[in-house]
């Protein structure tokens, strides 16, 4: 049964990934603004401003706390937006998938290529944030480079979840449900901007069932130069969401395109 | 010889709606084979099924002797597809479209450069290699779509309404190219509802309606089998025309709107009497595939 979900030729999924990378290369200008300008604004605007009020009670500078939180949440946002708007554009108005499906490619090849691309974008954006954070003195040690493979995994996982929405969507407007009702709350509640201990205990329990907090708790000690705990558990939760999301997304998109 | 495409008893249902009802089709190698039918006859559905892009309800499909859908990937690697609506990649230039598409077939860019130059020359787009897709005219887009379908040197080329919406110059150019491909030994399978296109291009064709095959043969055979060789189209003066046409022996008359179509073996007598009535305008022509098509599929409008 699983054979239906795995791309059979490695080059097939990579061809789709390469197609998207070629588009990305053409948008290098806007890419630089997004990948470096946005984190700079966040870290300078929020980090220095809010940091003045917070400070003291934490085991790391607020700028480090914020940078690590934003690294995790940006990986979610970058991959999700690409898997929502980017994939929908290619699948529906551009009919790119129709053209691909007339070649030897099959639906799992296309989706694996798309998910790899979403995760790649997460890593590129994360690299930008990490560089800006390092320049602002918010990164404690070289162990922070471990963040990049983690962001890749976070990107993979959130891309598959967003693909489910894309598969069900009939228009761009539909995505507001997901961005407003799922992504925004995850970003605001998962310990990106303030410690999760500030929240009621019940809510904390719920948040641990969701993926983003696990990403934050892997990334934060790596950036702060502290020991990382529960690595296997955090990775497992993120990977589990990714795997489940992928199986559902392939089924739904196959149902949508193979009519 | 073993057929390139062999479809047996293909049925396809969407809920209660039966789009294909036991379609049988055998396409011999090296011919240009036409599938004609009104909108909604099931042409596109059949093409999607034979590429393994859409599951069938029942039936059996073999392409190059390989079973579909099991061998869909291997079959598509040897096919070229020109879809009904252009789906060129708007993010890329002309040449990038071909390069990216070649990669989907696992063709490395080094081995494909020469092929791309050749194809751009074949469809007369050599000077537009670096143009963005948005700057191309409809005819150029179609020609590029055809070039794209040839990137893998396909043995079977499937064209879904290849010249719909194009001007006469482009249509003729595309017809010439399709004939050249057939001369080179490719098998062509095309759907169309342009009868002139089918008559000019197809060695053999089937007429499909309501998911079934109504007729098969060469365009000439079908015309001989189903309609009289001459047609008089008479317009205006409904009652007068009726009276005149009623007097003609050995003729079959059909009225559609304000026009009477008179099919006959010998139009001389009728022509003589029509000369007497200058208030009636008429057109005398040899019968064609469109007459066969309308006779077999009826005159009611389709959506």
CATH superfamily of the largest domain in chain B: P-loop containing nucleotide triphosphate hydrolases
Main beta-sheet annotation of chain A? none
**What percentage of the residues of chain B does DSSP assign to strands (E)?**
25-35%
Number of helical segments of chain A? 10
Give the number of domains of chain A: 1
Average pLDDT figure of chain B = 91
| Global geometry of chain B | globular
Helical segment count of chain B: 11
Would you list the SSEs of chain B in sequence order as H and E?
Answer: EEEHEEHEHHHEHEHEEHEHEEHEH
The secondary structure category of chain B is: alpha/beta
Largest interface, C-beta within 8 A:
A-B, 25 and 30 residues
Give the neighbour order of strands across the main sheet of chain B. Answer: 6-7-8-3-9-10
Largest sheet of chain B: 6 strands, mixed
Q: H/E series of chain A, N to C?
A: HHHHHHHHHH
Strand content of chain A: under 5%
- What is the oligomer described by this structure? heterodimer
Radius of gyration of chain A: 19 Å
Residues in helices of chain B, as a percent range: 25-40%
Can you give me a brief rundown of this structure?
By secondary structure, chain A is mostly helical. In chain A, 75% of the residues lie in helices and 0% in strands.
Would you write up a description of this structure?
The complex is a heterodimer of chains A (259) and B (303). Chain A is mainly α. Chain A has one domain. Chain A is built from 10 helices and no strands. Chain A has helices at residues 10-26, 28-53, 62-91, 96-101, 107-135, 147-168, 175-189, 201-209, 212-224, 231-257. The longest helix of chain A has 30 residues, at 62-91. In chain A, 47% of the residues are buried. With 303 residues, chain B is of the alpha/beta class. Chain B folds into 2 domains: 5-218, P-loop containing nucleotide triphosphate hydrolases (Rossmann fold), CATH 3.40.50; 228-286, Reverse transcriptase/Diguanylate cyclase domain (Alpha-Beta Plaits). Chain B has helices spanning 43-50, 72-76, 94-104, 109-122, 138-149, 168-183, 195-201, 219-226, 238-246, 268-275, 289-297; strands at residues 5-14, 17-27, 32-36, 58-63, 66-68, 79-82, 156-160, 187-192, 204-209, 212-217, 230-235, 251-256, 259-264, 281-286. In chain B, the strands form 3 sheets. Chain B has a 6-stranded mixed sheet with strand order 6-7-8-3-9-10, with helices on both faces. In chain B, strands 2-1-4-5 form a 4-stranded antiparallel sheet. The longest helix of chain B is centred in the middle third of the chain and has 16 residues, at 168-183. Chain B is globular, with a radius of gyration of 22 Å. The model of chain B has no long low-confidence stretch (mean pLDDT 91). Classes of the chains: A mainly alpha (259), B alpha/beta (303). Chains A and B meet through helix 1 and helix 4 of A and helix 2 and helix 3 of B.
């Amino acid at each position: 049964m699983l054979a239906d979900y795995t791309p059979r030729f490695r080059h097939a999924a990579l061809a789709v990934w390469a197609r998207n990378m070629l588009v990305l290369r053409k948008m290098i200008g806007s890419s630089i603004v997004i990948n470096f300008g946005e984190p700079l604004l966040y870290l300078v605007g929020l980090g220095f401003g809010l940091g003045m009020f917070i400070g003291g009670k934490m085991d790391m500078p607020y700028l480090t706390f914020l940078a690590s939180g934003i690294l995790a949440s940006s990986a979610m946002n970058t991959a999700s937006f690409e898997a929502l708007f980017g994939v929908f554009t290619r699948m529906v108005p551009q009919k790119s998938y129709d053209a691909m499906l007339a070649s030897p490619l099959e639906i799992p090849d296309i989706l694996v290529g798309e998910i790899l691309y979403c995760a790649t974008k997460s890593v590129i954006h994360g690299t930008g944030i990490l560089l800006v954070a390092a320049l602002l003195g918010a990164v404690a040690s070289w162990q922070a480079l471990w963040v990049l493979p983690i962001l890749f995994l976070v990107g993979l996982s959130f891309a598959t979840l967003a693909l489910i929405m894309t598969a069900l969507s009939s228009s761009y407007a539909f995505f507001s449900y997901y961005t407003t009702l799922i992504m925004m709350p995850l970003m605001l509640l998962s310990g990106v901007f303030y410690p999760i201990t500030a929240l009621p205990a019940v809510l904390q329990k719920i948040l641990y069932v969701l993926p983003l907090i696990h990403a934050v708790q892997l990334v934060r000690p790596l950036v702060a130069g502290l020991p990382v705990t529960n690595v296997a558990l955090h990775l497992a939760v993120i990977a589990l969401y990714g795997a489940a999301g992928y199986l559902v997304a392939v089924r739904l998109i196959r149902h949508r395109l193979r009519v | 010889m073993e057929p390139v495409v062999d479809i047996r008893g293909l049925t396809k249902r969407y809920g209660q709606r039966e789009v294909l009802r036991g379609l049988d089709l055998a396409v011999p190698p090296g011919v240009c084979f036409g599938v004609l039918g009104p909108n909604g006859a099931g042409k596109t559905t059949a093409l999607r099924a034979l590429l393994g892009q859409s599951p069938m309800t029942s039936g059996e499909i073999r392409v190059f002797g390989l079973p579909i859908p099991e061998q869909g990937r291997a079959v598509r690697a040897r096919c070229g597809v020109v879809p009904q609506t252009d789906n060129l990649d708007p993010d890329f230039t002309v040449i990038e479209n071909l390069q990216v598409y070649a990669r989907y077939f696992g063709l490395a860019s080094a081995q494909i450069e020469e092929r791309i130059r050749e194809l751009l020359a074949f469809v007369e787009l050599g000077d537009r290699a670096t143009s963005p897709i948005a700057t191309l005219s409809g005819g150029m887009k179609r020609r590029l779509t055809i070039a794209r379908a040839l990137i893998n040197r396909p043995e079977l080329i499937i064209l879904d309404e290849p010249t719909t919406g194009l001007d006469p110059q482009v249509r003729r150019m595309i017809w010439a190219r399709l004939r050249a491909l057939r001369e080179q030994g490719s098998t062509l399978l095309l759907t169309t509802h342009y009868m002139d296109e089918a008559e000019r291009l197809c060695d053999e064709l089937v007429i499909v309606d309501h998911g079934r095959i109504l007729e098969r043969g060469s365009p000439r055979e079908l015309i001989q089998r189903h309609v009289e060789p001459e047609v008089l189209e008479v317009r205006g003066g409904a009652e007068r025309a009726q009276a005149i046409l009623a007097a003609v022996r050995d003729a079959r008359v059909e009225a559609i709107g304000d026009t009477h179509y008179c099919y006959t073996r010998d139009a001389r007598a009728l022509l003589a009497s029509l000369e007497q009535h200058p208030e009636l305008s008429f057109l005398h022509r040899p019968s064609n595939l469109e007459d066969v098509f309308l006779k077999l599929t009826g005159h009611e409008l389709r959506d």
